[in-house]
Amino acid sequence: MRNVLVIGSVKTTKHTIIQLVKNDFNVVGILGHEPKDPNLVSGWTNLRELANEYQLDYRGFSKVNDSEHIKWAASKDIDIIFAVGFSQLMSVEWLQMPKLGCIGFHPSFLPRGRGRAPIAWMILEKSYGSATFFLMGEGADDGPVFVQEIFKVEDSDDASSVENKIEVAINNALERWLPQLKNDIWEPVPQDELKATLTGKRSMEDGIINWNDSAYQIDRLIKASTKPHPGAYTYYKDAKMIIWKSELEKQLPIKGVVGRILIKDKDKGFLVQCGEGLIWLRDISLNEITEPVVGSKLGYNVEDEIFILKHTLKKISDIG
Fold first, then answer.
1. Measured at the alpha carbon of residue 192, what is the angle toward residues 89 and 117, in degrees to the nearest 5?
2. Peptide bond before 179: cis, by omega within 30 degrees of 0?
3. Among 122, 197, 200, 247, which one is least packed by beta carbons within 10 Å?
4. How far apart are CA 222 and CA 163, in angstroms?
5. Nearest to 45 by CA among 167, 129, 145
6. Residue with the larger pLDDT of the pair 193 and 40
């Protein structure tokens, strides 16, 4: 029986552990990421609780490459490491530790979408995703692939619904592949480098809305940025306004000033004019500010703000 170590911190890690136990693998340990603020880690899951439920050896970590974690893992005579659901780069010591190798997970349809923020990028581009398990090397998501379970990102999908699709896909992939792995079938297929694409990191500030963009672009951004991500946002007066849900409007014969609210509806939310097209906004977070009314302008008029700032600075200078 193969000895397996699992490293991770999120829902995909949890599903991997459950499927490994279900298929009677010998899970000799779980190394769970324990961040200072779990709320900042999308989909973070307390793996200590799962380890206790299955009576598995557990160790928490902040930095995966600390020597004490490597020493702890090296004592377990590991055949396979599953590194699923954390963003830290693993050292060569980890990659060389297991007898067979380290198996990584990526939710894009590799070789497309290697790299960072795969869920956000696949929603922005309305492309395909996949529960992909691959043999890890020193490159970024470029190792040969063991199994893929593909799904399509639809118009209505957002970050939350895509995460649900990933959970379904990962279970389907593991149910199909783990029985083969248990029978020592180890046949990863090299990726086609000619089809490879790479995506870059996305941060909280990348969720800011430019109302001059088309309604389609803004709708994709809101859907890509919604929970469990920090959310797409704009400004109303001097408050940050986070928008969690959106829907395109394609029928109403109405036109207004870009960024201005045209209609308020109790079910659909706020209808806003974009650079091209109209969009409904709902599920809005707006701290300590009365919600906008019809006619309100969202975002900042940069030239007006610069004028006010320069005028204020001149007054301060004159006083000085």
1. 40
2. no
3. 200
4. 15
5. 167
6. 193
What are the structure tokens assigned to 202, written together?
């996305």
For residue 106 the two structure tokens come to 């990526």
pTM score, whole prediction: 0.89
Under the banding of pLDDT at 50, 70 and 90, the label for residue 192 is very high
SS3 103: strand
- Give the pLDDT of residue 248: 98
pLDDT band at 287 (very low <50, low <70, confident <90, very high): confident
Summarize the confidence of residues 12-19 as an average pLDDT. 96
Q: Which residues contact 169 (CB under 8 A, 6 or more apart)?
A: 107, 129, 130, 131, 149, 150, 151
Return the residue matching tokens 């389609």: 216
Task: List, in order, residues 6 or more apart from 316 with CB less than 8 Å away.
Answer: none
Where are the strands (E) in the chain, listed by range?
3-8, 26-33, 58-61, 80-84, 101-108, 114-115, 128-135, 145-152, 198-199, 232-236, 239-249, 261-265, 269-273, 278-286
For 147, the token pair is 């199994």
Q: What is the largest CA-CA distance in the chain?
A: 82
Which pair of tokens denotes residue 247? Answer: 């829907």
- 58 beta partners: 30
Distance CA 5, CA 18 (A): 13
Q: Which helix (H) or strand (E) holds 18?
A: helix 11-22
Contacts for 14 with CB less than 8 Å, ≥ 6 apart: 45, 47, 50
Say how far apart CA 57 and CA 77 lie, in whole Å.
14
- Of 160, 156, 162, 155, nearest to 109 by C-alpha is 162
Backbone angles phi, psi at 161, to 5 degrees: -70, -35
Among 104, 169, 98, which residue's Cα sits nearest to residue 134?
104
35 upstream amide cis, omega within 30 of 0: no
